[in-house]
Amino acid sequence: MKPKVAFICVHNSCRSQMAEALAKLFAADTFEAYSAGTELKDTINQDAVRIIKDLYGVDMNKEHKSKLIKDIPEVQIAIKMGCNVVCPFLPAKHIEDWGLEDPTGKDDQEFIKTAKTIEKKVKALAKRIKNNEIKL
């Protein structure tokens, strides 16, 4: 059975949404991806939506919405996206913090950099899961 991975940050509107989209694109064979936060936003970050669509052809507006931690299933792995404030807590067998800067309000280069970093980290996470480097 594939482990469930949650990408979490406070608002679940930008980095965690990008991570969910890229995980579904690059790691669906290895794990199930979810994203959530502790506060809901009316819409997900439209700069993030545009960049992910430009770079990867994925339209996050179709399937993604801001979700609370209580709205997703129990997960085995929790990935904190990097919070300058207190990151939400989600019980999981494996927790790590990717420490990513929030690109919200910054230029496209910052969004592209964030997306590429998330892509690398998602692929590395999938490899670590496949190689049993993460104890579940």
UniProtKB/TrEMBL annotation:
Origin, by domain of life? Bacteria
Example GO molecular function term? Answer: arsenate reductase (thioredoxin) activity
Query: What Pfam families does the entry give?
Result: LMWPc
Q: What is its EC number?
A: 1.20.4.4
* Gene3D superfamilies listed in its UniProt record: 3.40.50.2300
Q: Which UniProt keywords apply?
A: Oxidoreductase, Plasmid
SMART domains attached to this UniProt entry: LMWPc (SM00226)
Q: Which PANTHER family match?
A: ARSENATE REDUCTASE
Q: What is this protein called?
A: Arsenate reductase
Q: Which organism is it from?
A: Clostridium felsineum
